[in-house]
Amino acid sequence: MVVASALCQGEITMGKENGKVVVLDFWASPYGMRTKIALREKGVEFEVQQEDLWNKSELLLKSNPVHKKVPVLIHGDIPISESLVQVQYIDETWTDAASFLPSDPQSRATARFWADFADKTVIDRGKNIWGNKKGEEQEKGKKEFLESLKVLEAELGDKTYFGGETFGYVDITLVPFYSWFYALEKCGDFSVEAECPKIVAWGKRCVERNSVAASLPESEKVYQQVLKLRQIFGVE
Predict the structure, then answer these.
(1) CB-based contacts of 227, cutoff 8 Å, min separation 6
(2) What is the predicted pLDDT for the residue at 16?
């Protein structure tokens, strides 16, 4: 059962905090990092079950039968798929801590827009860097990736976080990709900091938060995983 069907059938009460929390995850997944950051920001205790993406568990296949992907957030016996849906669910369920989204509708809509922009551009364009051999396709991927970051950098401006002084929804959405910057730089032979210094400075500020530091893997470890993926996919 996915959360949407449960909601339609009235089988789940939003805001109910009781129940064990489990995250089905793969450590290098930026999407899973979002969910873990959100839970830690809310002070929620949870268990992580690491998945072998080439030999997926029955629990993962049962919990996310549509996409069969991580992360899956399981709260009690209710599985919730898709990382941005999970972040919003966490925000609406554990309400004792500050909300990830602003209180007024217009600002909330703006935050959702930028989170959606980051979600739809950064990860895919980053894959076009590490997933391609040297050549025109990789150069195109690098150009498009940096274009996305520059758009986000312009939105960030001189603010501490995307929401101003408050770490919130857009930050949670984007900061996991910060742990992938080093791998992309190594594969594409470029510097994110040289092109987007404010984004890198923002990433460093975010990592100073315990929730982020505990959720993001070491950059070198991500790079080694990318090298393995390149071998698997025949890139090198």
Answers:
(1) 236
(2) 57
Reading the block at residue 60, the tokens are 């993962």
* CATH number for the domain formed by residue range(s) 105-232: 1.20.1050.10
Which residues sit opposite 25 in a β-bridge? 50
Q: How many residues does the chain have?
A: 236
**Residue 82: phi, psi to the nearest 5?**
75, 120
DSSP codes joined into one string, 71-112: -EEEETTEEEESHHHHHHHHHHH--SSPPSS-SSHHHHHHHH
CATH code for the structural domain at 3-93: 3.40.30.10
Angle value at C-alpha 141, between 215 and 31, nearest 5 degrees: 20
Cis omega before residue 71 (within 30°)? yes
pLDDT of residue 11: 34
Q: What is the mean pLDDT of the chain?
A: 92
31 membership: H or E segment, kind and range: helix 30-41
| Model confidence at 2: pLDDT above 50 | no
User: SS3 of 24, please?
Assistant: strand
- Residue-level pLDDT at 6: 34
How confident is the model at residue 165, as a pLDDT? 96
> What would the mean pLDDT of 194-210 be, rounded to a whole number?
98
Q: Where are the domains of the chain?
A: 3-93, 105-232
Highest mean pLDDT among 16-30, 125-139, 177-191: 177-191
CB 71 within 8 A of CB 86: yes
DSSP structure string for 149-218? HHHHHHHHTT-SBTTBSS--HHHHHHGGGGGGHHHHHHHHT--HHHH-HHHHHHHHHHHTSHHHHTTSPP
